[in-house]
Amino acid sequence: MLTKRIASALVLIPVVAWSVYSGSTVLLVLVMLAALLAEHEYIALSRTAGYQPCAILAYVSVALLILGQQWPHLPLVELSIGIGALLALVVEVFHRNRSGSFESWGATVAGMAYIGLPLLLALRLRSMDDGLAWMAIAFLGTWACDTAAYAVGRAIGHRRFFPAISPKKTWEGAIAGLLLGAPVVALMAFYGLSLSFPVGLIFGVLLVAAATFGDLAESVIKRQAGVKDSGNLIPGHGGMLDRVDSLLFVFPATYGFAVVTTLLF
Questions:
Q1: Is pTM, for the whole model, over 0.85?
Q2: pLDDT digits (tens, 9 = 90+) for 228-252
Q3: CA 62 to CA 265: how far, in whole Å?
């Protein structure tokens, strides 16, 4: 398993790094691909859990959200979430009050927001003046946190961290992720964004918390569906949703912190 994880990372990291560095259309294509694959896995998990979300509407809405950054003068974000939520309820009208209609409608709308909005904010983050630095910190801080938590948790982890949701995660791993991830973020913010170390450390704690609960949030969905991974797309890592789950929380947290620091400093 570890060998597969390392091999997959050696392939994926250069692709992601090049896309983030290039920005614009290259990054848009990568984010769109990741969004649709993650949404596909989310739809499958929802159906396994007993719901019937409208897949076509979910795919279209997520795609419109991502394209909303490319063409900000068009009301694509409003159409994807506002009209998308209404159309998802109209779909249930035609299902004639089938059992679980309310839950299926909720699953459709939740998938749009859960996957589409954070990845839209990733593109907005990259478009900022220091967007490349912010994106690098988001990725590297998340990877540092995840790597430390995984390694230490496997080596010495004993006390379970939310065992009903994620049985393999431990307090030892979570603390290791914080102790490595927060300083890494603080140092990168200091040298890459000229933020003071204390401010960077606050950002680091926020990012680690977002990454940790992003992972746990996806685990809630998987536990409800009774599966271990969202898919088997990436050897050693599971599906696309498994790979971006932390980032779905990290991108909004980073974007929000970037906006606040831009206004204050």
A1: yes
A2: 888 777 665 678 999 999 999 999 9
A3: 34
Q: How much is the pLDDT for 168? A: 83
DSSP the chain: -HHHHHHHHHHHHHHHHHHHHH-HHHHHHHHHHHHHHHHHHHHHHHHHTT----HHHHHHHHHHHHHHHHSTTS-HHHIIIIIHHHHHHHHHHHTTS-TTHHHHHHHHHHHIIIIIHHHHHHHHHHTSTTHHHHHHHHHHHHHHHHHHHHHHHHHH--SBSSTTT-TT-BHHHHHHHHHHHHHHHHHHHHHHH---HHHHHHHHHHHHHHHHHHHHHHHHHHHHHT-S-S-SSBTTTBSHHHHHTTHHHHHHHHHHHHHHHHHH-
CA distances (Å), 53 to each of 43, 77, 147, in order? Answer: 7, 20, 34
Using CA atoms, how far apart are residues 94 and 42, in angstroms rounded to an integer? 23
Look up residue 40 and give its two tokens.
């596909």
- Contacts of 38 by beta carbon, 8 Å cutoff, 6+ apart: 115, 230, 239, 240, 241, 244
pLDDT of residue 193: 95
Q: What is the mean pLDDT of residues 134-144?
A: 96
